[in-house]
Design brief:
The protein is 33% helix and 24% strand. It has 407 residues and is α+β, with helices and mostly antiparallel strands. The strands form three sheets. It has a five-stranded mixed beta sheet, covered by helices on one side. Strand 3, helix 7 and strand 4 form a beta-alpha-beta unit. The longest helix is centred in the first third of the chain and has 26 residues, at 115-140.
């Protein structure tokens, strides 16, 4: 498989040839020069970085079993309720995808499939779209190998993304896309964005390459300025009438429901047992004996950038909670979270703090003042990465968004 290439300099051509030599042991027939250019452009023509990125992606592809992915039979929930439609091609031959996102029942989907299945299905769809884009490029040139994506966010329920499994899925999926499908996006239009959509997007874009974010344009609800930009490269006759085009489906529907998967609320009969899929956190249940303390130590090594995060609940009674740190070089002891009573029997206690390198942090659950009762405790405490911080931030911000919208 070979295809047209974008214009590259002589220096870039030499880098491309060297890249092919270095990757020769891992490449197959479908890995043409344009495929390699995508990874080089994603890493600003840094040969070492591009090789590292591509080899990591090839391992991920093996995990997804991409070479045989068409043999996989995805769950009915994904095939019939994930909203999208392929709506023709732009003026340069690029496939156009339309997604009525308000019809995506994220809560229901996460009760019907695992996160792995959800992401694998997106990989399946992207592989199909790339195959179509390659065929288009044979007639229209290399620009046809990129996708135009159109999201309508009208009436989207942001409350779904205050639920941790949904936020985990969003952040993880964004990272998977960035790591495995570089330079695939040509343009992304997001219209009718809710008032506080920008709050969520500012969190998600931390995990997007700046080149990707430069191709995403967001328009708030009631604004139609996007039409001028969209229809500068998309034929109105080949775009649904509901969004400014002239096309209707065989039923005369301006939304062209017959030409796409429309989505909608998932029926509960498709729900499966998700008890083991709700979160990646491994909670521990224990008893803090009367008059005793539970101490958990976490060491942050030099050069590490970590967040110390926690979530816990007590049953029937409150407990004292606090965190202190000790600098391993100076011996300085600091109070990070002042020891105090938390009513974790009424509501889960959740939080996180930033950490410093070469420091040991001690988390304390203190029941020393209780001489009559032991306290049953269910907890998760760990040092987490920036990705985990993003998940926590997304859930809390979406929860705040929902509260604000109700006031």
């Amino acid at each position: 498989m070979s295809g047209p290439l974008p214009e590259i300099s002589e220096e870039q051509r030499a880098i491309l040839e060297q890249f092919r030599k270095q990757m020769d042991d891992a490449l197959v027939g479908t890995h043409d020069d344009y495929f390699l250019v995508r990874w080089l452009r994603a890493r600003k023509w840094n040969l070492e970085a591009a090789e590292k990125m591509l080899r990591a992606s090839l391992k991920t592809r093996a995990m997804w079993n991409v070479d045989n992915i068409e043999k996989w039979d995805p769950p009915k929930a994904l095939q019939e309720y994930l909203p999208y439609g392929l709506m023709g091609y732009d003026n340069e031959g690029s496939p156009i995808l339309v997604c009525p996102f308000a019809n995506f029942d994220m809560w229901g989907m996460m009760h019907c499939v695992t996160r792995f299945e959800f992401q694998k299905y997106l990989v399946l769809l992207l592989e199909r779209f790339m195959k179509i884009a390659y065929e288009q490029s044979q007639k229209h040139g290399w620009k046809a190998r990129q996708l135009v994506v159109f999201f309508d966010m009208q009436d989207v329920n942001l409350k779904q993304y205050a639920w941790r499994p949904a936020a985990e899925c969003v952040i993880s999926t964004v990272k998977q896309y960035e790591a495995n499908f570089p330079e695939l996006l040509k343009m992304c239009y997001i219209i009718n964005a809710p008032k506080l959509f920008s709050v969520a997007f500012n969190i998600v874009k931390k995990f997007l390459d700046e080149n990707t974010t430069s191709k995403i344009v967001i328009y708030k609800s009631g604004v139609d300025r996007w039409q001028q930009q969209l229809f500068s490269h998309v034929n109105r006759k080949a775009f649904p009438k509901a969004w400014g085009g002239e096309m209707v489906d065989r039923n005369g529907d301006p939304q062209c429901k017959a030409l796409m998967i429309w989505g909608g609320k998932l029926p509960e009969e498709l729900y499966i047992d998700q008890s083991s899929q709700q979160s990646d956190r491994d909670f521990v249940e224990t008893q803090v004996a009367k008059g005793d303390k539970l101490k958990l130590n976490f060491k942050v090594n030099g050069g590490e950038e970590k967040i110390l995060s926690w979530e816990f609940r007590t049953f029937d009674y409150d407990i004292k909670f606090g965190i202190y740190s000790v600098d391993e070089q100076t011996g300085e002891k600091r109070s990070e979270v002042a020891l105090g009573t938390v009513y974790s029997n009424e509501m889960d206690e959740v939080g996180y703090i930033s950490t410093r390198p070469n420091t040991t942090y001690t988390v304390v659950f203190d029941n020393s003042a209780s001489y009559l009762r032991s306290k049953k405790l269910r907890y998760w405490v760990d040092l987490i990465s920036e990705e985990e911080e993003g998940i926590s931030e997304l859930t809390s911000q979406m929860d705040s968004t929902q509260i604000a919208s109700q006031q």
